[in-house]
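Weekly sync, protein design subgroup
Attendees: M.S., D.O., the rotation student, P.L. (late)

Item 1: inverse folding check
M.S. brought a backbone from last month's batch and wanted to see whether the design step gives back something sensible before we order anything. D.O. pointed out we never logged the input encoding, so this time it goes straight into the notes. Structure tokens as presented (364 positions):
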């Protein structure tokens, strides 16, 4: 019987992926130690899931100023690099491939996470959302608008994080430009009301992303860099779609063709946007004609939907989130049409092995 396209190998910029299933980046809050370091438990978690064609790690903070959640591993200290080396060694020992998602949350943070200082953002606009702190989920505050030097330092921080990822043994990095975090905040008018070179026009709103990419060239090949975008995110984490949102993302996607990246990673809408003016309801189908390279699509896919989007040619790879949390051997389960484990949502963001590395394999 001919193998389904989902389980066929894929050449990703010189990396041979054994299938087209990607483990999506998902915050798991297991680095509950003073240095927010990935641990042997983290390594076990990713090693268990190394049969994915590609693993993209949970977002890892590029600096202390980038922090927006407790117990999330960073990638700005030597100890953090050493912790991530445990992870990459474990995944590579199983024949897997792994990219680090490097991340700055911008205004999606809280002074409690910054020694009382306000988090940084493109503009001083409160997302009116929640930040996860030692006091639980608390209301966000009005952030401090970034100075030009803040922006330049952030570009340096992303560059250092990419260099650290190379030192840690990652196969590549993914820039988190989605889901209402810092780069996404620059792209959208609801969060960026700057009047300098980083605000106003579409080109200015997108400028920081391309300045980061240009800086990354000094520390990592472009074909080892991915970019994640969420164009139709609306009414979540302070993001709103307006008349310039999709044109801005169209401009970004077209410009990314000049960088010969590893991939573009797109997310379908978190919630239905059929009634939202200016939004795109089918992101992969809309943006596929604009992008010449490898396209990953994410959000709510099961096996059947994944096969369909690949066969339709709207994406090259499909990223699965929650199914990989509960099913370390998700690839085998999909290949054999086995039943899936039920995810325990109460353990998604709490420390410890429960709900993290204790989900059973089929063989168990």
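Designed sequence read out in the meeting:
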């Amino acid at each position: 019987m001919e193998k389904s396209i989902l389980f066929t190998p894929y050449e990703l910029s010189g990396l041979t992926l054994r299938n087209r299933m990607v483990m999506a980046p998902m915050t798991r809050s297991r680095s509950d130690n003073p240095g927010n370091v990935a641990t042997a438990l983290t390594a076990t978690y990713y090693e268990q899931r190394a049969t994915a064609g590609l693993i993209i790690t949970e977002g890892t903070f590029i600096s202390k100023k980038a922090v927006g959640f407790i117990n999330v591993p960073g990638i700005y200290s030597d100890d953090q690099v050493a912790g991530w080396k445990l992870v990459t060694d474990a995944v590579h020992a199983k024949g897997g491939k792994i990219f680090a998602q490097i991340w700055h949350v911008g205004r999606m943070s809280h002074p409690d996470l910054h020694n009382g200082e306000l988090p940084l953002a493109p503009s001083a606009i409160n997302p009116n959302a929640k930040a996860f702190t030692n006091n639980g989920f608390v209301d966000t505050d009005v952030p401090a608008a970034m100075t030009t030097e803040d922006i330049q330092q952030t570009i340096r921080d992303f560059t250092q994080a990419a260099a650290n990822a190379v030192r840690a043994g990652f196969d590549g990095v993914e820039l988190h430009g989605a889901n209402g975090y810092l780069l996404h905040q620059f792209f959208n008018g609801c969060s960026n009301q700057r009047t300098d070179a980083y605000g106003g026009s579409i080109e200015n709103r997108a400028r920081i992303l391309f300045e980061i990419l240009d800086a990354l060239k000094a520390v990592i090949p472009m074909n080892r860099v991915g970019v994640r975008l969420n164009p139709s995110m609306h009414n979540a984490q302070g993001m709103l779609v307006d008349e310039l949102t999709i044109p801005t993302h169209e401009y970004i996607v077209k410009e990314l063709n000049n960088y010969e990246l590893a991939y573009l990673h797109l997310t379908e809408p978190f919630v239905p946007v059929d009634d939202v003016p200016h939004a795109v309801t089918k992101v992969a189908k809309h943006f596929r004609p604009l992008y010449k390279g490898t396209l990953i699509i994410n959000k709510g896919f099961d096996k059947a939907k994944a096969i369909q989007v690949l066969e339709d040619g709207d994406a090259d790879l499909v990223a699965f989130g929650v199914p990989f949390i509960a099913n370390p051997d998700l690839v085998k389960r999909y290949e054999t049409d086995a039943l899936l484990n039920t995810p325990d949502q109460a353990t998604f963001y709490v420390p410890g092995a429960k709900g993290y590395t204790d989900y059973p394999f089929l063989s168990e």
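Discussion: The longest strand covers residues 54-61. The first helix runs from residue 40 to 48.
Action: P.L. to compare against the previous round before Friday.
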